[in-house]
Amino acid sequence: MVERATIKPGENDILIVVDVQVDFLPGGALAVPDGDAVIEPINRLAKTFRHVVLTQDWHPVGHASFASSHPAKQPFEMTDLHYGPQVLWPDHCVQGTPGAEIAPELDIPHAQLVIRKGYNAGIDSYSGFKEADRQTSTGLAGYLKERGFRRVFCAGLALDFCVAWTALDAAEAGFETYLIEDASRAIDTNGSLEKARQDLKTAGVQTIKSDQIAGA
Prior knowledge:
By secondary structure, this protein is α/β, with parallel strands linked by helices. The chain is built from 4 helices and 8 strands.
């Protein structure tokens, strides 16, 4: 466990803020329980990082991961798509809709990049690095490597899906990776939170609190 306030963000560190969008906040189409609680710690954290990237779910109408695209299926049921098992979601973060917008309360004017994901109609995309087929790249790993980043810090929504998958892929790409737990919230469906915690531990992703970062 990393000790309190011993991590000082520098030029080789980047904060990835995952999917803090209107549809994932209270009242949204796929609201994460207590999802709005991530905004204050993320805004605080962002002030300590010179380098920040945002990810944004960006689905076309009729996306394959929507329960509405599968007759007789309900949200949160499972189905098999061409790349494997898939949770079916309520329609959310549809391109160009208010629900897809980055939360207006998020105060990160210095964010340097927004990575949109989930825009391929037949493939879901939790991670900011790779789509759910585990083959299609977003290009984020190349961007981070070309800019010389070594440590990646992940926070946002939802911890057990998009945040965890982003952190796992960051670690797989060779970055020293941290997930900031109190700046993230989970959906926790079908045991997803416990599975995410185990996967993160196995991959060597360090789960920390925001007060372990100096200045946050």
